[in-house]
Specification:
- The protein is an alpha/beta fold.
- The chain is built from five helices and six strands.
- The chain has a six-stranded mixed β-sheet with strand order 5-4-1-2-3-6, sandwiched between helices.
- Strand 2 and strand 3 form a beta hairpin.
- It starts with a helix and ends in a 13-residue tail after the last strand.
Length: 227
């Protein structure tokens, strides 16, 4: 019990550090007047994104019908933007996938008027090495700092055994919305429908930029491609 209590204490300590960071990101500047951008990245359960989705497919005759499945990854830049990235099965979901999404997110934020050269970028993820906890993600963050595209960068991964409470809550609303949709035949239909959801019921009040994007290819960031 003592070891378990110590583990829970470490988990809570992880969460409080993330909560403090996302608050600073929403406020715009920290106590020293410098900007901090906290970016959280995670993927949604595949089972919600089979297509085509149609009311008639609930019949028993289609119970064993194999349908393609989209991958959906959500990104929240606290206080700035929210993104949903969809892709089909043929797009590889490795470390380059996460780096590609991060690069696009930073590009959109920079175009939105935030000077990344004065920002500390905090990337928060879970403990999955496939997405962010890897050398490829560290390489792109180091490259951003070395080339002076940002002031500093941090990569933080919560311990195993718990997940991100804010992005998972957002995903819960997303899953409920997708489950209620019966007429989504193509990936483009998903993008259009989810963009409507993000602008309305799925809106987060702290983030002004909301984008749903279909990704058809990624660059080979794991090969050391220049930034």
């Amino acid at each position: 019990m003592a070891l378990f209590s110590h583990h829970l204490s470490r988990q809570y300590s992880d969460r409080t550090e993330y909560w403090k960071a996302r608050t600073r990101s929403r406020q715009g500047t920290d106590s020293s007047g410098q900007r901090e951008l906290v970016i959280i990245l995670d993927s949604v359960d595949h089972g919600k994104f089979h297509y085509p989705r149609d009311e008639g497919l609930g019949a028993k005759d289609f119970s064993n019908w194999i349908r393609p499945c989209l991958t959906c990854t959500g990104v929240i830049v606290h206080g700035v933007a929210t993104f949903l990235f969809l892709s089909e099965d043929f797009v590889v979901k490795d470390s380059s996938w996460a780096c590609e999404l991060l690069a696009h997110v930073l590009h959109v934020v920079d175009e939105g008027g935030i000077d990344l050269r004065d920002c500390t970028i905090w990337v928060q993820s879970d403990n999955a090495s496939k997405e962010c906890k890897n050398n490829t993600m560290m390489r792109i963050l180091a490259g951003l700092v070395v080339t002076r595209r940002c002031r500093a960068a941090r990569l933080c991964c919560l311990q195993s055994g718990h997940s991100h409470e804010d992005i998972d809550q957002w995903f819960s609303g997303l899953s409920s919305y997708i489950t209620a949709c019966d007429n989504l035949s193509t990936p483009a239909d998903f993008v259009e429908s989810l963009q409507v959801w993000m602008n309305g019921a799925g809106s987060r009040k702290d983030e002004a930029i909301k984008k749903c994007i279909l990704v058809d290819q990624t660059r080979a960031w794991q090969l050391g491609m220049c930034i």
